[in-house]
Amino acid sequence: MAVTMAEIVVSVNGVDRTLRCEPQTTLAEALRGALELTGTKIACNRGACSACTVWLDGEPVCACMLLLADVGERSVTTIEGLADGNNLQPIQRAFIDYDAIQCGFCTPGLVMSCAALLKDTPHPTTEQIRTAIGGHLCRCGTYPHVIEATLAAAGGVAE
User: Fold this and answer.
1) Which CATH code fits 90-153?
2) Could you report the per-residue pLDDT of 134-152, keeping only the tens digit for each?
3) Which residues in the chain are classed under CATH 3.10.20.30?
4) Whole-prediction pTM value?
5) Cα–Cα distance between 111 and 100 in angstroms, integer?
6) pLDDT digits over 72-107, tens only?
């Protein structure tokens, strides 16, 4: 039986891209495969760890739980799309400065969630940060550093 391919146009990091893929292709698979944007990680592939977090119209979503065909005209932003060339976003720089990176597997998803929080809440509390990263699984346990980095990127200090 022949596999039916679909032609899908998706806006990723401000660029419209046309992909031919199977209808069951997830956004995460398309990002890592055809688009070669490997910053988005696939870990659990069922939305339980949030390693694959990207923005869909500015809101964090698990890319492994969304079919590429369902993205439609919405805009996707990946970890590669946060920086302005070589100029990192404050949250990206803070993750480096505060050692919020251990093995690095969960890091892109955590950065995307923290960046979304800072976009909507420029001066979050520790509790708001904990809520924003609540769905992320970090096996290295770097959560305290993530909180410190997010507070620093917001210009605050640990409570």
Assistant:
1) 1.10.150.120
2) 999 999 999 999 999 999 9
3) 6-78
4) 0.93
5) 10
6) 999 999 999 999 989 999 999 999 999 999 888 899
Distance CA 31, CA 96 (A): 24
Amino acid residing at 119: K
Is the dihedral angle over the CA atoms 122, 126, 128, 129 positive or is it negative? positive
- Pull the structure tokens for residue 140: 């290295």
Query: What span, in angstroms and rounded, lies between the C-alpha atoms of 13 and 46?
Result: 24
Structure tokens at 38: 């490997």
| DSSP of 8-74 | EEEEETTEEEEEEE-TT-BHHHHHHTTT--TTS--SSSSSSS-TTEEEETTEEEEGGGSBGGGTTT-
